[in-house]
Amino acid sequence: VQLVESGGGLAEAGGSLTLSCAASGSILSINVMEWYRQAPGKQRELVASITSKGNSNYADSVKGRFTISGDNAKNTVTLRLNSLRPEDTAVYYCNADLYEGNHWANRIRQNYWGQGTQVTVSS
Hints:
Blueprint: E1 2-6, E2 9-12, E3 17-24, E4 27-38, E5 45-51, E6 56-58, E7 66-71, E8 76-81, E9 90-100, E10 108-113, E11 117-122
Parallel strand pairs: 2-11
Antiparallel strand pairs: 1-3, 3-8, 4-5, 4-9, 5-6, 7-8, 9-10, 9-11
């Protein structure tokens, strides 16, 4: 299983970016997909999560500005970043909690990370 992120880049404060993450491989089902971020010198923190049922949660610091959405059929998750602030600058990582295998009877629950995508917000 691989998670591939895209969409990072440079934005001005107040601007927007959209991050995407696509999971591929022997995936039977995805339980939850999440976005984390890690700024220089800081710990990785959870930004947003979405379950296969569409239930989402956000860190207080991004509520009202970021929106997470998922496509179960395509095994993708998107994070829309609006009203960006310099403090949003970080490497953003996609994470998936899922079942993998070639048959449901042989499923294995695993957790995977993407390689990260840089988001830089200038003031």
